Fold Acyl-CoA dehydrogenase.
Amino acid sequence: MEEVDHLAHERSKAQFDVDAMKVVWAGSKHALDVSDRMARLVASDPVFRKDDRTMLGRKELFKNTLRKAAHAWKRVHELRLTEEEASMLRLFLDEPSYVDLHWGMFVPAIKGQGTDEQQKKWLPLAYKMQIIGCYAQTELGHGSNVQGLETTATFDPKTDEFIIHSPTLTSSKWVAWWFGKNFYTCSCLCSFDHGWKGPWHKWFHSPVTKFG
């Protein structure tokens, strides 16, 4: 069936410069160029097709999402895309997956909360996706209400380690959709009792599975 652009007539009556409006909408000419190139890249790649998405079952959708995420990562490397371009490519991919939390929340948590030493160790691995991380803030009984979080981190001087503990059902860290199946490590937000003015909330970088 031939496609019909039902808005073409209305667009033709615009009283402003459409190309100039595109720049304003994107924020800059550079941002528009990046957006346009990544949109064309996604639209021209058959692996990124979306027309069959509504016909897929849950398992098929899960596998399809993983395949697209892996292919997107492959294209990022093959084309040597910048971080800005890669982010825009994932946006146009329009397929929620584990990479959204990895790039959108896990990596920024390390950059914003990690020490220089921690960033030096973990960011190169995260950028190469040699580790895949999530962001464990939401709890079953509290949503993302930080003040209500029950998961605790208690320092054990005998082992020189922190013990992260979710003592109740409502304190269970809750990962939406299938994201929890794909992670090796996470940034976990806990109530941290430092012993003199009640609990603080601190981020802890915690492995979920063994590396290697």
The helical segments are 8-12, 18-26, 29-44, 58-78, 83-93, 98-113, 116-127.
